[in-house]
Amino acid sequence: MDKCKLFLYQPEMTSYRAHYFNELSKNCTIEGFSDYSSSGKGFCEASLDFPVKYGKRIAFAGGRVFWHQGFLSCFIRGRYDVAFVTANPRNIALWFFLILAFLKRVPVLLHGQGLYNKSPIRSMNKILYVILLSFSNRYLCYTELSRLSLGWLPKRLYAKVVVVENAIYNHFPVVPSEKEFSELSDVLFVGRLREGVGLENLADAILSLDCNRSVRLHVVGEGENFERYKNLYSDVPDRIIFYGSIYDDKEISKLSKICLVGCYPGRAGLSVVHYMSMSLIPLVHSDIKSHMGPEPSYIMNGYNGYTFDGYDSDSIENALRKLMATTPDSKFEVASNAYLTYVDLNSPSMSEKIYDSVISEKERGYALFG
């Protein structure tokens, strides 16, 4: 049987998705389209096993919506069995793409996070998602929380909504048995140092802790606030340690072995899965609607991670004190549950789940409305 020819659209072809798409390309002939400026926004250059064309995104209305140059023409010129497309309603080109896919009778798999962070859900959002689901074969959402956020859809459209858990694949995972939990207390942060990341709250919480040993914060990542943060904590270089960007997963995993906690103090997303893959105990804010993505919903407080409630350093400090006060066995159990969550998210893998949907919809053909 000939390989399925897949049109793959990602606004940003990020390195953490490269593994899954490369795996998918073993079973599908993929032609991709993305934004060539991704590497300039804190993303590692993705190494891909399939061709990708690039176009520029042009923002309008103060950045609230954008047009992706070349997206439509790339799709028009090709012959595809199925299209796998990021479902960002702010992408004006997406709406024209849906019309083109209808005219070309190409089954569309939309991939998105749903409306997990919208409460209440406005009428305009409901109208947009009814249109999205009507003109697609399936909507593959990031998490179960994403699926539930679309439960108001008419039954025939809600039946199209399936969960393909958003995850990362760590080539150098750290299993719990590689750590000595009776000796660990350090905290790891991995992410972009941008506005709203909340690093001050985490750093101040670390410095306020009064433990038998000095707890250190290891900061991996750069961004527009990198130099400001370094200067802000330049008087405590032994407690708040900045490494800059590390794009080698092996080096980050090595660093994680001296850490107990992986904390994202601001709007978290896939970072929680990265922490879980290294047997770190993830710590994030409890308000799921405040996060960058729905992935923090994977955390069950006290089972495979911890959450804090306030938007200040005191809340993080109290959560860390509670965590640090638990026994080494309890720490090992929570870290083990976190690692098992990572394993479960990749069993089967994201690429396998996408492939199942691709083949299913190729055989089914284009399905308008139902």
Largest sheet: 7 strands, parallel
Name the CATH superfamily assignment of the largest domain. Glycogen Phosphorylase B
Q: Give the overall shape.
A: elongated
- Count of individual beta strands: 15
CATH architecture of the largest domain: 3-Layer(aba) Sandwich
List keywords for this structure.
Rossmann fold, 15 strands, alpha/beta, 370 residues, elongated, 2 domains
Task: Describe the structure in your own words.
It is built from 13 helices and 15 strands. By secondary structure, the chain is α/β, with parallel strands linked by helices. Strands 3-2-1-6-7-8-9 form a seven-stranded parallel β-sheet, sandwiched between helices. The radius of gyration is 21 Å and the shape is elongated. About 1% of the residues have low confidence.
Architecture blueprint of SSEs:
Elements: E1 4-9, H1 15-24, E2 28-35, E3 52-55, E4 57-60, E5 65-68, H2 71-77, E6 82-86, H3 92-104, E7 108-112, H4 123-134, E8 138-141, H5 144-148, H6 155-158, E9 161-163, E10 186-190, H7 199-208, E11 217-220, H8 226-232, E12 240-244, H9 249-256, E13 259-263, H10 271-277, E14 281-285, E15 306-308, H11 313-324, H12 328-345, H13 350-364
Parallel strand pairs: 1-2, 1-6, 2-3, 6-7, 7-8, 8-9, 10-11, 10-13, 11-12, 13-14, 14-15
Antiparallel strand pairs: 4-5
Helix pairs in contact: 1-13, 2-3, 7-11, 10-12
